[in-house]
Request: fold
Amino acid sequence: MTEPRRAKEPKWLLRKPDPEAAARLFCFPYSGCGASMYHRWPRRIGDVEVCLIQLPHRENRIREPHYGTYENLARHLVGYLTPFLDKPFAFFGHCGGALPGVELAIQLHEEGLPAPEQLFISSQVAPQDGPYGRFLGMQDDELAEQLSELITSLGGTPDPRLVQLGLGLLGQDLEANRQYHRAEPVVLPSGITVIGWTEDREIPMDLMGGWKAWSQDCRHVLLEGRHYDFLHAPAALLDVFSAGLSPSPGSA
Reply:
């Protein structure tokens, strides 16, 4: 009698972390995207390994159901990522992609597990000030235009058929954003680096002051660029990571 086939373990990371890495930067994808959106980023920033989180219902996990809410997503990630939190680590996310990392940091802290050394929050308001963003109120034709712009920023050519297929995923990701709100800040043991962009018309820096209530170590950094320029891994952004997550000698 043949044994039943075991279900495949979800692939929450695009690459298995290097056990020799001195520190790790876990990166969440932007709304409507998968981990491959970071294809222009280096695998390491100095001694820091870049670890790409792959969410369900996209790319190599396309057949899996959507995670639903950031709270549900974080519960799954707590169990999966714990073995890889044995080195200094940080979370990065841009716009809607920043909030899952925030919720994950909250749940890690509440369960007494290692907390990130730093949360790198790019173009996103604090949860007590959200949900916020013009994408959240867009109709499908407007979202299709934004998807086309994003595909172009990723180096591709928008295909109307693929854009239409991507609208479903983007809509579910945006709904998770709409549902996420915390009336009161949660003071985390992590440092927080809030990153704004000089030409970002979506989330200007002056709307991101609420993050100061989330950490005793919160700083704001304004970089040159537009909303999607983080995709190109600009040197100034990599310098921010290096400054905020510098493993101490012998930490590996």
About this structure: The CA atoms of residues 134 and 202 lie 7 Å apart.
